[in-house]
Amino acid sequence: MSPELLRVQDLTVEYRGDRRHSSVTALDGVSLAISPGQTLGMVGESGSGKTTLALAILGLVRPTAGQIMFAGHDLTAAGRRARRRLGRDLQVVFQDPYSSLNPARTVSQILSEPLDVHKTLSRQQVRQRIAEMLEQVRLPADSAGQYPAEFSGGQRQRIAIARALMVSPRLVICDEPVSALDLSVQAQILNLLADIQRSLSVSFLLISHDLAVIRYLSTQVVVLYRGQVMESGPTEEICARPSHPYTRALLAAMPSPDPDLAQRNISREPGSAPPSSNEYTPGRSRGAETRHGPNQADGACGCPYSPRCPISVERCRTERPALRAVGTSAHAACHLLPDPLPWSNPGRLAAP
Prior knowledge:
By secondary structure, the chain is of the alpha/beta class. 32% of the residues lie in helices and 20% in strands. It has helices at residues 50-58, 80-86, 107-118, 123-136, 153-165, 183-200, 211-217, 235-240, 245-252, 259-267, 286-291, 314-318; strands at 6-16, 23-34, 39-43, 65-70, 73-74, 90-93, 171-175, 203-208, 220-225, 228-234, 323-326, 330-333. The strands form two sheets. An eight-stranded mixed beta sheet has the order 6-7-8-3-9-10-12-11, sandwiched between helices. Strands 2-1-4-5 form a four-stranded antiparallel beta sheet, with helices on one face. A hairpin with a 2-residue loop joins strand 9 and strand 10 (228-234). The longest helix is centred in the middle third of the chain and has 18 residues, at 183-200. The model is unreliable at 266-299 and 340-352 (pLDDT under 50).
């Protein structure tokens, strides 16, 4: 049996539009693997396909092509009964703790619902399990009788995490679990997830647009852009020596307590400008986004990042790059590799 808990192979998801024959490709040949007890981080800006991948794994979106294997079972071919059996091992924590919890139910009712679906424990065992999970996420025992409206955003997310852990899953998909929280609360939730993984040996698929969050919790990372994998490999290796220009843009956009260092990070990409308040990628102006939106033809046959890449060449716009091995165990999809790209001056890289 494969040691991998989850393997996604060449997954493609297309959303059909209103017009006949029109469609949008949300995922285009994405592959990844998660081992037991491992945290895989998936990072990319809005519209990169991160949530679509999570929905496909959960069975809420039907893949157009490719395969999803979980614990030796083919999820892309699984029927409703098989999905229900596997649902106990595959749980999810959603982004917004204010909308993911039923306001009309108490915490006890919310946490017992997964156990009611799978009907595995008696009432006494359910009450005991609820008390254990509340202690696991560091909430007082009397929280069981309260309603979600009585809790803060961070406390609600703790309840959502406890609900996901109620049935002892093997994999938990965390879709932007801290993006709706204050920075101080984000750190608490990330520390909680790290402690849970150490104590329960559960695997996480951590989805985020913030590479700092991914770097803190993940051992492996996959960088997505417009539905394609730009780079993947060990988190520390990619953060220390990124190969793809898009990964570098994400790293340069990470906030730094040193303003001089932050300015140097921004200036590393030739022709870049400081990001606006709702943009994470340096060098991405509103005009460029309008010209090269996700449904434009630019980059459709080549690298999807080529319209925004400061070092792209003609080949980048006409031929899609394949993932190639770089460094020790990382892979990147860039025609200008395997030559290392100087982090301080990416403009020096020439086409092979």
